[in-house]
Amino acid sequence: MHDDRSEVASSKGDRLDQLVAARHQMEHLVRAIVEIGSNLDLDVTLKRIVKAAIELANARNGTLGIRESGGTLVSFVQGGIDDQTARRLGTLPVGEGLRIDDLNAHMQAGVPTHERPIRALLAIPITVRGADFGTLYLADYQPGRVFSDSEESAVRALAMAAAAAIDNARLFERERESAKWTTASREITTALLSGDPQTGPLQLIVNRALELAGAEQAILLVPRKPDCPPDQVDTLVVAATAGRYASQVIGQQVPMDGSTTGGVARRGIPLITDSFQYPIEGFTDVGERSAIVIPLIADETVLGVIAVARQPQQAPFGSDYLDLVSDFARHAAIALALAAGREHVLNQELAQAGTVEDAVHAAAEELRRRWRARRVLAVTFATPGEKGDATPHVVSVGEPAKWVDLPSHARKMLSELRDGDLLTPNTPQPGTAGIALQHPEGVLVVWIDLAERRAFTLEDQTLLTVLAGRLGQGLQRVHQVDQQRETALALQHAILGPAHLPGGFAVRYQAANPPLQVGGDWYDIVDLEDGRIALIVGDCVGHGLAAATVMGQVRSACRALLFSDPSPGAALAGMDRFAAQLPGARCTTVVCAVLNPDTGELVYSSAGHPPPILVHADGTTRTLEEGHTIALGVRPNWSRPEARVTIPAGATLLLYTDGLIERRRKALDFGISRVAAVVQEGRTSTLNELASQIMSDVAPSGGYQDDVVVLLYHHPGPLQLEFAADASQLAPARTALRGWLRRARVGPDQTMDVLIAVGEAVANAIEHGHRQNPKGTISVAATALADRVQLTVTDNGSWKTPQPATDSTRGRGIALMRHLMQEVVINSDTPGTTVHLTARIA
Amino acid sequence: MTTSLILDTTRSDDATLVLTAVGEIDLSNIDRFKQALTTATTEAVSGGARLTVDLTAIEYLDSAAINALYNLADHIHLIANPLLMRCLTVSGLAELVTIEVPPIAPH
User: Fold this and answer.
1) I need a labelling partner for A770 at 20 to 30 A (CA). Which of A61, A143, A429, A752 fits?
2) Which residues of A touch B87 (CB under 8 A)?
3) Contact criterion met (CB below 8 Å) for A353 and A359
4) What is the CATH topology of the domain spanning A344-488?
5) Which ranges constitute the DSSP H helices of A699-807?
6) C-alpha distances in angstroms, A544 versus A483, A498, A515, A536, A540?
7) B63 inside domain
């Protein structure tokens, strides 16, 4: 509302009106101040200031002229006064403020405007942090209109509030600018890590620098000879350019001495300049303009120099900009240095890791070495659902640590890292840093506790980000290889033979072509319907993958044939026909035997295969040479003879392939007798020990050159009983054990000793182990070796050795056990009690 | 299923009281064996004589049975299958009780 009456203040009523108006003005001022301070965007804030000033002064129009550091007005925020007029107004010395009633009278030439000429003018400076920011101009063209004292005061008050609002908006803008540079730094690190071949790392750096600085040109210079020691660099070359004249500038050379860029590279200190000492065509000759020159330093080595130039009419770079760009340059330099291969140690470690777990461990070790850390934790949080809400898996190097033992604040912090952004370093306090990264099963959080409480610097953080990124990629790779290998292994093992052997057997298999775990050799152990067991060991021609694929088919065929007719001769005759049809299967050698595990009777037939070896309990050895004829698939309808032998108790049967015994310049018989000697010497070892013994004792010095199979059977096979912990089960268990001892040719006296000793252990288990748990089970296992019988009684209850004094019944029982057996070992632990008994047999 | 054990108390021709056990003695029938043993011993002792326990046809016994025999060691005389001798000896029972081994083992 415009009010002319204020100019004619004479009556009391007018004075009252004046007071009311002043009060309105005050309210208006407060509203205006609140409003201009309510936005942090500088442009919006400035527009609001102009609008509020016009309203407060009841002016027709206005403008805000903004001054550069030299004092010249460089831009205007329009409020009804056009730029040309505003520029003229800008020539007026404002000082502390200026109020003119008639501008035409004040300025001899007047201020021509497109509209009506300005008469009344109010010009109030805005001072921000002691510097002249600009001037608020308010104008009116009506004849007789002048600005009052109160209007001037209101605008002065507004100018002060405006200064604070501008200051805030500028600070905010700087923060935002700084954040942009930080984001750009991260982007560069990430891009360098991803190894995107589209844009080279240097190009990426100049592109981002150009964009962020709003500049006209950005160039990056590096030493001409990349491997030259830093102090011997004599020439820089422009290696990447962005913006204007990019293609002209690239490749130009600048001497280190006598050039601005060389000086920056040598001293490692950034500077802002508008004059370069050594010309770079297409860069320094573009015109006088502000440029910022920053060294790229990593690990105290100058990798290069970035120069960024603005357009001549743009505002020159402020010194606060130097910090922003320097930080960016440091980041970029570290990332560059790392991308150039500094992380190769970690990559090597990862390449050697066979499993994801190994890789995580190796990486944790490497991080610990890199930072000489007290401890590095690598905590895997599996994705919920895949493995349920499992406890996070902790790998700790430096100090042992488990998840449950970590203090609750540490667990909380690690969980928060998991939920935060990936590949973003977090340094909550000096001496520590954490980062989360992708793990094939979820998220991996790496936590570093430095040995000293020093700050984790920007360089440390970038390095950590780079290494974590590499680790994430490495884990993924290892995981894939791991999965492929597991798949391959599963398939290979499926081809090879049964994973679980019945008791009484031991097997060794070694392929000639690692990492392949199968070859042309195979073994098989097949439970036949009549209770007998078929044993097959064969050898297809060649080794490697081709032989393995043939072998898998031959093995399956042999199984199928045995199921339809459990006779070794018939099976081999069938395989003759099969092998003649299957490419690569001709000349396969195989020995096929069918065993009655109760009696030890063995029927066997051999197709060109080396003879099985039988070693008796007393050490006498024979080879099973009968039932032998030519290899498979060579002659149709060839007669396949069978031979029979009864394996006596305590004897060991060995089936094998020629890889075990065949040596250059050595007769086959020599190899056979060597193997027989090992079996003979080791006949009192357990079957598994014997199998390993054979593999290691017979191996040639350079390792086996061919596929090798060793299949061992000891007669009788072990006894395995499992029954309820109840006295009624004692008699049947004794009957079974008695039968097995008879098969093992244990004499009647010793049979009684074993029955009583085992009976005592079982009775103890029933009486003491299962008082509270009548549904428990007891198992009895018996294994015969050439010179002894080993028995194991296991129950899932827990009983202590009763003291003879306190419990005369079972105390005597244990004493009895100790007297009757050569060895008694009682292990009582949480899951139950196990009694191991050993009886020597003659 | 209880382990087979047949217990029979008879007077021999010379009027000795004889407890004959046939089968196997273990946890499942030890109470029956103890009871028969106690009853027969009491009877023999009341007649001022020892009880003869004939274990010739016992194919298995455990420490509970030996214990029962121990408790009445002063009042019994044993006839045992030679296969049991080792366990009767190592338990020390053979030092307290006279044990007669029949000339021909059964089975």
Assistant:
1) A752
2) 752-753, 756, 816, 820
3) yes
4) Beta-Lactamase (3.30.450)
5) 730-743, 748-764
6) 21, 20, 10, 20, 11
7) yes
For chain A, what are the domain ranges?
Answer: 5-173, 195-341, 344-488, 497-714, 719-840
Nearest to B63 among A730, A753, A816 (CB): A816
DSSP E strand stretches across A575-677: 589-595, 601-607, 613-615, 621-623, 628-629, 643-646, 652-656
Which amino acid is present at A300?
A: E
Q: How confident is the model at residue A807 (pLDDT cuts 50, 70, 90)?
A: very low
Show which residues on chain A lie within 8 Å of chain B, measured between beta carbons: 727-728, 730-732, 734, 748-749, 752-753, 755-756, 759-760, 763, 766-767, 808-810, 812-813, 815-816, 819-820
Q: Which residues pair with A449 in a beta bridge?
A: A375, A432
| Closest to A738 in 3D by CA, of A724, A752, A726, A727 | A752
Say which CATH superfamily domain A719-840 falls into. Answer: Histidine kinase-like ATPase, C-terminal domain (3.30.565.10)
Domain range holding B65? 5-100
Query: Residue B3 is nearest to which of A731, A752, A812, comparing CB atoms?
Result: A731
- Could you tell me if residue B32 is inside a domain? yes
Which of A756, A770, A801, A822 should one mutate to test binding to chain B, selecting the residue with the greatest count of B CBs within 10 A? A756
Nearest to A820 among B3, B66, B90 (CB): B90
Task: ipTM value, please give it.
Answer: 0.90
Q: Residue B86 maps to which CATH number? A: 3.30.750.24
Structure pTM?
0.56
Contacts of A760 in chain B (CB under 8 A): 62-63
Distance set, CA A394 to CA A179, A417, A554, A558 (Å): 34, 15, 47, 48
